[in-house]
Amino acid sequence: MSEIDRQVVEDKLFEDCAPRPLAEQISPQLADAAMRRYETRRMPPGLFHSAWNHVEYAINELDDRELIQYYFDIAHMLLGNIMQHADSTEDLRLGALTLGSYMPLLMRRATGETVSDEDCEGVYKSLGSALQYQRPLSIEEPPQWRMAEVAVLCLSARMKRPDLLLYPASPREEQSAKKKFNHDSYFYTGQDKLPIQQKLVPTQKVYDECITILTLNPIIEKASKVTQLHSGETLAEKVNYLLSLVIADANNHDLTRSEYKFLNFMTEAVAAHHAGLTSRAPVRRSA
Question: Secondary structure of the chain in the HEC alphabet?
Fold first, then answer.
């Protein structure tokens, strides 16, 4: 491929795909160009893009299991470099840990294998450990937004249902040329995605009708009201309270009956977004 053709392909990476499709759905040329675009980067943001691009290339392009494993191994190495790099931010480290938690499931997608309930449980425990590893939670310290995003991913994995599991969007998927198509996670149907945009509080931003908004703070407030648990006064306190329960539950620490009820309410609320998209009845999880 000539340099001009390469540039044309690279430019297409930034076209509006409304919303940008799954790795399985992009052209092999785009998957290859994306991987090559970042493969020489050495700083953490570039390493993060490169790790995702290697995973998406393997999902999109390869049928040989050994080659798929090879590209996933490279992605693992890049994530390790992010964790060890002195210039990595907490946000990037948590992003690396999140991708690492989903790698076994993405590997199954690449090889055409079925994701199991046990796989979902593995994601839940891995994400819970990632949140715990990232830093001790302080109620006086506002949580990172990515930590709140990961908490929602945890809640979806807690259902132990592959059809109700939210996947994190890759950097390629996450941002569109038109902001109304932006999304940060999605339910995977096996053939397509049901895109979700997470918000802490209600937003005035307008998204396309294909994007479902999941607003966290009202769900926390309703869970607090239903369980009569005080999750905090400020937004930071409320999110930190949710994070503390997710971390405790994912790491098999004892919770009170009310705390389990709080988590179950939050879990069912996330699942309800899937039910609303697929016209299914809400799914309930017993304590």
Answer: CCHHHHHHHHHHCCCCCCCCCCHHHCCHHHHHHHHHHHCCCCCHHHHHHHHHHHHHHHHHHCCCHHHHHHHHHHHHHHHHHHHHCCCCCHHHHHHHHHHHHHHHHHHHHHHCCCCCHHHHHHHHHHHHHHHHHHCCCCCCCCCCHHHHHHHHHHHHHHCCCHHHCEEECCHHHHCCCCHHHCCCEEEECCCCEEEEEEECCCCCCCCCCCCEEEEHHHHHHHHHHHHCCCCCCCHHHHHHHHHHHHHHHHCCCCCCHHHHHHHHHHHHHHHHHHHHHHCCCCCCCCC
